[in-house]
Amino acid sequence: MKREIIKTLDGSTTIHLQEWDECYHSKHGAIQEAQHVFIKNGLSLFQNRQVSILEIGFGTGLNAFITFLEASKMNQSIDYTGVEAYPISTQEVLSMNYVEELNANNESTVFEKMHQSKWQEKIVLSGDFSLTKRKQFFEEIDDFEKFDLIYFDAFGYRVQPELWSTEIFNKMYNALKPSGILVTYAARGVVKRSMIEVGFTVEKLAGPPGKREMFRASKK
């Protein structure tokens, strides 16, 4: 599948899959989307505590990198797990401009280490942030009550509806600790029904720039 690096409307880059006309992040702003969906409506609910995070779709590492930058501001200790079936190439990593756009030049080595680290091995990026990348299909996830927060950032329902099924959300529900939270940019009715079917309580929230709504799901 042909891939190209494009700039989104907030100046940050993303990967565009031409055959699907699908991007790794919102064309309206990759960084803005990550900060709104995953930080404002997810991570910020867990201030001043230890947080175990599962990301569904590690991709370019943007969500992980922003989480690393924000965690120190919120006095958090993060144990981060990113799941990705198809890792991006070194060339694509080097094309991402997140360090510059986030004014994080002092942490550029952290972004590099996130991508250079071995799969299936936990690495310590700071005293308060560890990362484990798992090369894995989402259907293979079998964690049980391990995570406080899930960033659900799979490709959209339009191109991969199987990733938004009750089967997948049941795995997400099982992976969360009691009272855990899942946040996603999605807001389709069929997605909400799948979440509710497996036991989630679902809130509809204001979406990031260019998108009216998003979902936040809570485990009872």
Q: Can you walk through the features of this model?
A:
With 220 residues, the chain is α/β, with parallel strands linked by helices. It has a single domain (29-218), classed as 3-Layer(aba) Sandwich (Rossmann fold). The chain has helices at residues 30-40, 62-71, 90-95, 98-101, 108-116, 166-175, 189-198, and strands at 3-7, 13-17, 22-23, 50-56, 77-84, 122-126, 129-135, 147-152, 176-184, 201-206, 213-218. Helix 1 (30-40) crosses helix 2 (62-71) and helix 6 (166-175) crosses helix 7 (189-198). It is globular and about 45 Å long.
Protein structure class: alpha/beta
Encode the helix/strand succession as letters: EEEHEHEHHHEEEHEHEE
- Profile the largest sheet: 8 strands, mixed
CATH fold-level topology = Rossmann fold
Rg over alpha carbons: 16 Å
The proportion of residues forming helix, as a percent range, comes to: 25-40%
Strand order of the largest sheet: 6-7-5-4-8-9-11-10
CATH class: Alpha Beta
From the coordinates shown, what is the CATH architecture? 3-Layer(aba) Sandwich
Q: Give the tally of β-strands.
A: 11
Instruction: State the distance separating the first and last CA atoms.
Output: 40 Å
Tally of separate helices: 7
Shape: globular
Poorly predicted residue ranges: none
Mean pLDDT: 97
